[in-house]
Amino acid sequence: MRLVLLGPPGAGKGTQAALLSEKLNVPHISTGDLFRANIGEGTPLGVEAKQYIDAGKLVPTDVTARMVKSRLAEADAAQGFLLDGFPRTVEQAEILKTLLEENSQQLDGVLNFKVSEDVVVERMLARGRADDNEETIRTRLAVYRDETSPLIDHYGEKIINVEAEGTVEEINARALNSLGK
Ligand code: AMP
């Protein structure tokens, strides 16, 4: 299964992706996690990405797309994947479409995790990640509204809505149910 997970920062996508990845037996590919691993290792990619991530802004698309392309080329992604945090713009969605078409593949669906802004801010402040201070959170929510939420219309019929308020288990059950699992 080839799925994209969509939703505002703090929607719990990462947590749900990890659970779904086990159930569906496909790798969880998170661009945020890949960036953080690169930052941790001090790679050139990490050094470049850090300034954007710390400010809550999007890392430039060419850098991000190159990283995604090489990750999708790894053997474990051949039979499917859960993409978490990519695409984040319509431009990135077009790049993903082209990448998949090169292998005669397409997305099976786009899970859209729906959650109110109040819950999102609460969750982000609770998890305490380095880029989870109030100013950065505000910037990331604005980036989501302006650049990422248009993907809901862009993907149209591929969108599968999941109500993402409640416990981790409840949301996971809803997500699986929406996929017919
Ligand atoms: P996340 O873990 O998905 O919340 O991502 C953390 C940060 O990584 C974001 O605020 C962005 O700075 C950066 N990032 C993650 N995915 C992307 C992407 N697809 N395009 C650009 N920047 C990204």
From TrEMBL:
According to its UniProt entry, the protein's GO biological process terms are:
AMP salvage
Per UniProt, AMP binds at: T31, R36, K57, L58, V59, G85, F86, P87, R88, Q92, R129, R140
Q: Which CDD domains match?
A: ADK
Give the residues the record marks as binding ATP: G10, A11, G12, K13, G14, T15, R127, G166
What is the documented function of this protein?
Catalyzes the reversible transfer of the terminal phosphate group between ATP and AMP. Plays an important role in cellular energy homeostasis and in adenine nucleotide metabolism.
Family according to the record: Belongs to the adenylate kinase family.
The UniProt comment on domains reads: Consists of three domains, a large central CORE domain and two small peripheral domains, NMPbind and LID, which undergo movements during catalysis. The LID domain closes over the site of phosphoryl transfer upon ATP binding. Assembling and dissambling the active center during each catalytic cycle provides an effective means to prevent ATP hydrolysis.
Q: What is this protein called?
A: Adenylate kinase
What organism is the protein native to? Corynebacterium occultum
